[in-house]
Write a structure and sequence with these properties.
Mean pLDDT: 94
Helix content: 25-40%
Order of helices and strands: HEHEHEHEHEHEHEHEHEHHEEEHEHEH
Number of strands: 14
CATH superfamily of the largest domain: Thiamin diphosphate (ThDP)-binding fold, Pyr/PP domains
Radius of gyration: 21 Å
Strand content: 15-25%
Distance between the termini: 38 Å
CATH class of the largest domain: Alpha Beta
Number of helices: 14
Number of domains: 2
Length: about 375
């Protein structure tokens, strides 16, 4: 057993000071120490997969990030670990616990199967892993091996933490809980019939024209990224090719790490429905440089146009309830252009809900730049900006 500082202090010396994740009793000393200690940033994620995406966004900004979660949530993290950090070469450090370890301490029944297959899952995903160090003398070699692997391969490294690997650390800081009641008032400004609305491509053209090339633009997976590439391939654009629903969490990690850079997240209705909880994290941390634009055509456009349920959803009201500071909604192109003009100079966590109809160019291509190339190019753009 080691104390939290025996790992976290030398890890910080290697640059690892951005932490995110979800709680586990095995991780309690780590999370509490990071929250209590100056020099560390901790983002409390609502979902393990979102935590991976947040860490990936911080990594692209030049941070060295650590994701912590219970192995019960490893399933939630599989998608971004296999289609975001792997595909875009983003080396986050992962610490997962081993609840239900075979032959280990007695645990709750829901951990039995996951305890048996955790290591198998990591190896199936081709992730390099090691057991968390249990004595002080093993910490430096373990960190050195992880650090060298991540730098050499640009891939994540996983530590598997077992019961009692880390001594208890009681949280000193009290959580900041608002005692104010929240009143949400929002009226959606949608006036057009579905077929009167614009399609997505003119919207993306307008975003490029109005916001320029000094903002970071993250386009969700599917046709949004493909159409943005066709409109004009630019170094300030990141095209998600997987990790459905993770664009917002990725943008949040970037925005929190690069506070002077305006970050624009272009989301889709199906994707946002999949991981709506990330909006709560945005509302809690309220990065003043983040603009979240939902292009909502009420359909899964890239898979054949099957409908989503957003025809009856007020995302504006949801955004306000989650704590976004500024919320807009419209289905008119000119109104959207005016909104872009406002948000470009704004300094508030902002949500824009734009209704469109489905449809895209008949011969829509795919980006000819590889995800790895996009990652390097986008990181260079982001990191060239002031902190």
């Amino acid at each position: 057993m080691i104390t939290a500082d025996k790992f976290l202090t030398p890890a910080k010396e290697l640059g690892f000071n951005f932490y995110t994740g979800t709680p586990c009793s095995y991780l309690k000393p780590f999370i509490n120490y990071v929250i209590d200690t100056d020099g560390f940033d901790f983002v409390d994620s609502v979902n393990e997969g979102d935590a991976v995406a947040i860490a990936a966004g911080a990594t692209i900004a030049g941070k060295r990030a650590v994701v912590m979660f219970q192995n019960s949530g490893l399933g939630n993290a599989v998608n971004p670990l296999t289609s975001l950090t792997y595909t875009f070469n983003l080396p986050v450090m992962v610490i997962t616990t081993l609840r239900g370890e075979p032959g280990g301490a007695a645990d709750e029944p829901q951990h039995e199967l996951m305890g048996q297959i955790t290591i198998q899952m990591l190896e199936t995903m081709k992730m390099r892993w090691a057991y968390f160090p249990q004595v002080d003398a093993d910490v430096a070699p373990a960190l050195k091996a992880a650090d060298e692997y991540m730098k050499t391969t640009s891939q994540p490294f996983v530590f598997v933490m077992r019961k009692d690997d880390v001594a208890d650390w009681k949280l000193q800081k009290k959580p900041s809980i608002s005692k104010k009641s929240l009143t949400v008032t929002h009226t959606d400004a949608f006036e057009l019939d579905y077929k009167e609305r614009t399609t997505r491509t003119p919207v993306l053209e307008m975003i490029q024209q109005e916001l320029g090339q000094e903002v970071a633009v993250i386009a969700t997976t599917g046709k949004t990224g493909r159409e943005l590439y066709e409109v004009g391939d630019l170094a300030n654009q990141f095209y998600m090719v997987g990790s459905m629903g993770c664009a917002l969490a990725f943008g949040l990690g970037l925005a929190l790490s690069k506070k002077t850079l305006k970050v624009i997240v272009l989301d889709g209705d199906g994707a946002l429905l999949m991981r709506t909880g990330s909006m709560a994290t945005v509302g809690a941390y309220r990065p003043q440089n983040l603009v979240h634009i939902l292009i909502d055509n009420e359909a899964h456009d890239s898979t054949g146009g099957q409908g989503t349920v957003t025809g009856g959803v007020s995302f504006g009201a949801i955004a306000m309830g989650f704590g976004y500071e500024k919320v807009y909604s419209t289905d008119k192109v000119e109104a959207f252009k005016n909104i872009l003009s406002e948000v470009k100079g704004g300094n508030e966590a902002t949500f824009v809900h734009l209704k469109t109809q489905k449809g895209s160019p008949e011969k829509l291509g795919r980006p000819k730049v590889t995800p790895a190339q996009v990652s390097v190019r986008f990181a260079n753009f982001v990191q060239s900006k002031q902190r």
